Amino acid sequence: MSPQFSIYAVLLFSLILLFLLIGFVFVYLFIAKKQRLLSHVQISEGQRKRKRKLRERIAGPLIRASEYAGPTGIKYPFFSDKEKDELLLVKAGNPLGLRLESFYGMRFVLGLSGLTFSIFYVFLGMPFSLMVLLLFPLGGFFGPNLWLLLRARERQEQISTMMPDFLDTVSVTLQAGVSLDGALKQVTKQLTGPLSEEIDRFNREIELGVPRRTAYENLLNRNSSKELKMLVSSLLQGSSLGVPVSETFKVQADDLRAMRGFKAKEKAAKASPQITLVTTFFVAPAVFFLIIGMLILNVIYNPGAFGLDSFF
User: Fold this and answer.
1) Which residues of 219-256 are buried (b: 16+ CB within 10 A; e: fewer)?
2) Confidence (pTM)
3) Residue 275 neighbours by CB under 8 Å, 6+ apart
4) 125 Cβ partners below 8 Å, 6+ apart?
5) Whole-angstrom Cα distance, residue 83 to residue 201?
6) I want to staple 106 with a disulfide (CB 3.0 to 4.6 A). Which of 66, 97, 280, 297 is the partner?
7) pLDDT digit of tens for each residue in the chain (312 aa)?
8) What is the Cα–Cα distance from 159 to 165, expressed in whole angstroms?
9) DSSP secondary structure letter of residue 282
10) Which residues touch 280 (CB under 8 Å, ≥6 apart)?
11) How many CB atoms lie within 10 A of CB 88?
12) How far lies 44's CA from each of 139, 165, 298, in Å?
């Protein structure tokens, strides 16, 4: 077998692996998003506690190493915007208790770990060593940025999902004669989740003497949920025009619930074509190339099975 044929075989195998990887990544993201939606209604509190303990047990050493390497990591951000990353951390709710310094320390630790593993991998003479040497350090260094972006989007989606129920509860509390600040405090004690955390922080700012409009602006700066922005805009307009606050919450809840239904139908309609496109352009060609490649290799190494002894 000629060296040129070996190069072609390696390139074909690499192309097959790349297509399969892209296809399975898209399928995994679709399944993960579906599981996140189902988790709001199907996961019990005991399961949440077990998952939280397992996550803390795995992430604990990484967080400690990130805090130790934080001063070094923040000195060398490497193609990162500190202001943008800090805003993403706030929108993501500071996952795992990360601050900006410890987040850059995590990037530094994971990038250095990926480089160490890839050097050891190359030293052992394993296949695709050049690809591993390139991808693992880059993936370890820039992977936390992608993870943080996904966490921020997930948290803002949770806020949007919780808005109708939150507004209904506040509206009922207001109709019972409780003030707006009292209703917000009472509801945040009863409900859990990112929306309650943000409203609780808003209440603390009001108690510390921050002007209400400034507290609303801070709430909007910390979040990018369109539903939350609509609520704050309605409250500001209602207070300036004299509209009852309880009526504002009730109308806003009905509108958001109808909008959520439309969005669910839209996502359901878009899901099937997306999976079809990924299967057609990535998974199916990869499987086709794999079958053809195995057939060619079988012809070359076992020509007798096809009656081609005279050609090889």
Assistant:
1) beeebbbebbebbbebbeebeeeeeebbebbbebbeeb
2) 0.66
3) 26, 27, 30
4) none
5) 21
6) 66
7) 556 656 666 666 677 767 767 776 776 676 766 666 655 544 444 444 455 555 566 677 888 888 888 888 888 777 788 888 888 998 888 888 888 888 998 898 888 888 898 888 888 877 777 888 888 888 888 888 999 999 999 898 888 888 888 888 888 888 777 777 788 888 888 888 888 888 888 888 888 888 888 888 888 888 888 888 888 887 777 666 666 666 777 777 777 777 777 777 777 777 677 777 777 777 778 788 888 877 777 777 776 665 665 555
8) 11
9) I
10) none
11) 19
12) 34, 19, 52
Both tokens assigned to 27? 């399928």
Contact 217, 185 (CB under 8 A): no
CA quadruple 128, 129, 131, 136: dihedral positive or negative?
A: positive
Q: How far is CA 143 from CA 14, 24, 233, 244, in A?
A: 22, 18, 36, 47
Check the CA dihedral 115-117-119-121 and report its sign: negative
Query: What type of residue sits at position 138?
Result: L
CA-CA distance, 80 to 28, in Å (whole number)? Answer: 27
Distance of alpha carbon 178 from alpha carbon 172, whole angstroms = 9
For CA atoms 131, 134, 137, 138, the dihedral sign is negative
Query: Tokens at residue 246, please?
Result: 């309880």
